[in-house]
Amino acid sequence: MPSLAQTGAFLLASFLFIQVPGPSLLFTIGRALSVDRREALTSVAGNAIGLFMQVVCVAVGLAAVVAASATAYTVVKVVGACYVLWLGVQAIRHRGDARRAMQAGVPLRRGRPLWIGFTVGLTNPKTIVFFVAFLPQFTNSRAAAAPQLLLLGAVFAVIAVCSDSTWALLAARARDWFAGRPQRLDRLGGLGGALMVALGVTMLVSEQ
């Protein structure tokens, strides 16, 4: 299993990653602003199920590669760091996306919130690349890779549920607060992007 230090680093990295506005977060905010609280939270649950399905696919496919090749491990690490850097830069460049999504809203599609959330989670390109390139960096090379990847993915999904549910509740109960000061979402995107850039640089220069 991952060491205590690896687990702590993963928890921090996951939390920062989830806070960067992307498909799931924008979907959650828009959903909470256009439907009732219950449907928004059900959509969050569906999104988490979709994310974990990604984890299962990644764990099965990556386990043999990571276990058999130190070179592959290094390549995945570098790719992951470069991706996180790119994501941070994109988040800074497009920090107004969350505000625009909030103002535009999403079409009302009542009755299938779990399925809608599942579809968004399963097809989220941000997390697909994240899981493929990032999860292996927090595994213990002396233990089987697949169980560790599944555990880390489950932890990520739990953090995502907590974060997205918080956003859904805040958006549902404070529409006027967001609408009155929409620049706060811009600042969130810029701060999250800066943190991800710093994280990507740290990953590139680290020896592990």
TrEMBL record:
GO terms for cellular component: plasma membrane. The keyword Membrane applies. It comes from the Bacteria. It is found in: Cell membrane. Keywords: Cell membrane, Membrane, Transmembrane, Transmembrane helix. InterPro entries: LeuE-type. It is a multi-pass membrane protein. This is LysE family translocator.
